[in-house]
Amino acid sequence: MAWFALVPLLLVVRGAGSRRSFMIGYVAGLAFWLPSIWWISYVTNAGWLILCAYCALYFAAFAWFVNLWLRRWGGARWGTNLLLMIVATAAWVCMEYVRSVLFTGFPWNTLAVSQYEIATVRQLAEWGGVYAVSAVLVFFNLALVTTIFRYRESTIRLGRNAHPELCFGLLVMAMAVATGMRSVMSRDEVLTTPAHIGVVQTDIPQMDKWTADTIPLIYERLKSLTLELRKQEHLDLIVWPETALPDEVLRSDTSYAMVQELAVDHVPILVGTMDSTVRESDERISYFNSSMLFHSSGRITYRYNKQHLVMWGEYVPFEDELPFLWALTPNEASFTPGKKAVVFELALPAIEFSTLICFEDTLPYLSRRAVLEGARLLINQTNDAWFEHSSASRQHMSHCVFRCIENRVPAVRCANNGVSCFIDSKGNILRELSDEAGSTFSQGVLSHWTFVPKSDHSKTFYTRHGDAFAWVCTGVTLGTFIALRLRRRQNF
Q: Confidence band (pLDDT; 50, 70, 90) for 311?
């Protein structure tokens, strides 16, 4: 439906005034965001409503921008319609990009994510990131709607007349599919190192995760599932989910001893845990959402602190200035963000990887930063049990597909509850953990041979240039807006 979902909105916007088009777009935004991220209400009802109200503004701005163009040029001429298709596509990409970076960013559910299972279309992310895929979808939507405009507003009739708007839309779609098909069918000539990696999915309900009665269950499940996984031959790395342990591993003798026991003389374990330090400046405690690699010798060799924290979930904005905002979150303290990506290294096999904790795999710049630093494998440790058995976990996983394509590296996802899976560099979901009924909301273990590119892996256009396509679209949008406003003033 993403290929024509915007058509009704644009048809209605054509006959509206400036303010009305903004409000129509805003209602359309609410109609999209309220049901698609309803699961945030499991954490905070107020936060869900505020976030939806904010994200709907980008729909409103897009509708207003299109209306501004149509009021100036109309839709009867194919030449101006083609220009509209270009500038309105740029405007949509601009809106998605700004939403993804402004106020720490919320890059969730870009239009492109709807294509995560379409192998050909999604390959464009290698060139322009997820925004390039969104652009193709919006361009085709505009091809349909401008064709309708021209037949409705001009004297020509349907028949054997030229359909330049629709033809250009089909051409761009065909080029996108052809480019993607070439990537899908091409043989991967990159030198790789095979690594047998296993993930542990504990399935601990979020409401029980921090209760004293559940702590023995968490230890028992982590230990039994890890021992089950260790029975497999040639296992190179075991991954636990985000905050898998019920406390801080460095401050808990019980947790530290258990991890050491499972790692010593066996397989390294990537542990999701909390960490804390006392700040020298004011002696306040800084809490971190961390990932630590326990070597097979039992010592910690690498540590990463989550860089991008979730607003309301992991920190409260302006907590010192507006303390009443704590009423909007169930948490008792804010975490402190990490400062940089960390590249973990295994000696045997020789692979380099970086961890992305929780929703960090929805942020393109973090994955790109890790790959630029030398990572050739991305490992996402997450805990989607916050949102129970909702669509959140599937939505979350779909974003990781694009991180693999953008940088042409594989990914491993390990969830406490949600979707634990293995994804290759073309975005194919190779294996997914599920129970006999096919549900991903279950405990269990899963392993797979992952082929990790060697350190001399050539970087993609997106890895080298980042969001250049989004920046170009932003420039086109601003330039068009300024030109339209100046033209309006001259007319007066």
A: confident
pLDDT of the residue at 492: 39
* Under 8 Å between Cβ of 249 and 359: no
Specify which residues 412 forms β-bridges with.
379, 422
E strand residue ranges, 309-443: 344-346, 351-357, 378-382, 411-415, 421-423, 429-432
Of 184, 162, 181, nearest to 173 by C-alpha is 181
* Residue found by looking up tokens 């260790």 in the block: 230
Question: 312-370 pLDDT, tens per residue?
Answer: 667 777 666 666 666 666 666 778 899 999 999 998 899 999 999 999 999 999 999 99
Query: What is the 8-class DSSP label of residue 33?
Result: H
Query: Which CATH number is associated with domain 192-457?
Result: 3.60.110.10
Q: Provide CATH 3.60.110.10 ranges for the chain.
A: 192-457
Strand positions, DSSP E, 237-324: 237-239, 269-278, 285-294, 300-305
pLDDT at 457: 75
- What is d(CA 246, CA 274) in angstroms, rounded to the nearest whole number? 9
Which tokens belong to 111?
Answer: 């239009």
d(CA 452, CA 463): 17
Identify the helix (H) or strand (E) that includes residue 78.
helix 78-101
CA–CA dist 457, 328 (Å, integer): 45
Residue 469 has φ and ψ, to the nearest 5°, of -60, -40
pLDDT at residue number 321: 62
Q: Are 423 and 143 in contact (CB under 8 A)?
A: no
Region 394-398: what's the mean pLDDT?
97
| Two structure tokens written together for 400 | 């990781």
Pick from 101, 88, 110: nearest CA to 169:
88
Q: Cβ(255)–Cβ(232) under 8 Å?
A: no
Is a pLDDT exceeding 90 seen at residue 161?
no
Strand order in the sheet with 237-239: 300-305, 285-294, 269-278, 237-239, 192-201, 444-453
